[in-house]
Amino acid sequence: MNLAGKRAIVTGAAGALGRVIADHLAAAGADVAGLDLNADGLATVADQVRKHGVEALAVPADLTDFAAVDAAAGRVVDAWGGVDILVNGAGGGAVAPFHEMTAQVWATQIDRNLTTVFNVTRAVLPSMLAQRHGRIVNIASIAAVSGGRLVRNATAYAAAKAGVIGLTKALAIEVAEAGVTVNCLAPGAQATPGRDRDTPQRREELLAQIPTRLLGEPDHLAETVVFLASPAAVNITGVILPLDGGHSI
Length: 249
Prior knowledge:
There is one protein chain. By secondary structure, the protein is of the alpha/beta class. The protein has a single domain (7-241), classed as Rossmann fold (3-Layer(aba) Sandwich), CATH 3.40.50.720. Helices cover 46% and strands 15% of the residues. The radius of gyration is 17 Å and the shape is globular.
C-alpha cells in the first residue's frame, strides 16, 4: 500500500471521517491537500499530516460553489503539478419526513452530497486525464443501497448518495481507458464521535440490523480508501463497496 510520491485531495478533510482518511493516506506516503469549509479544522489536519513526513495543504473552500472549487483545486494542481488521488468525502445528512420536507432542505442535501462531488471531480479530472493516471474514491452511504433503514426519514440524503453511485459507475466507464479508476464506498453506521450520543436503546436498534453487530470503524474505512488508491487496485473500477457489517445483504 505504498503511496509515496502520490498527491491526494480529500474533501471534507476536517470532518470525523475525512481526518482519518487524510491521516491514513499520509501514513502510506501520499502528500495530502484538504478541502473543506472549516479552515481551523483543516489547519489541524494539515499539522497531523506533516507528522508523517509528507507535504500538506489546507485549502478552505465552499465545495458547493463551482467557481470556488475550481480555484481551490487549481491551487493544489499549481503547487504540486497534478493530482493522483481524489477522495470525495464531504457531505452530511438531514432527517425530515418526506411529506414535510421543504424545497430548501432537498436542495441543500443534493448540493452537499452530490453537487460537491461533481464540482471537485470536474475540477481535478483534467489533470488526471492529462497524466493518464488517477484514483477517485467517492464516499456514498448504505442509505443509497438499502433506502436508509438505519436512519429513517433520510430520503433526500439517500437520493443524493444514490446519485453519487450513479456518477461513480458512469464516470468509471468514461475514463477507464485513460488510466483513471473511479470507485465508491457505501459505509453503514460508523463509530464516529456523534454515535456517543446514542441511548442504549438506539444502539441496540442499530446493532440489531447489522449481522456482525459491529459499527464501522473509521480506520477500517480509511484503510479501504488507501487500498483503492494503491497500485494493487489498478484493475478495480466502478465498484460500489458496502462497509456495513452485512446490513445490505
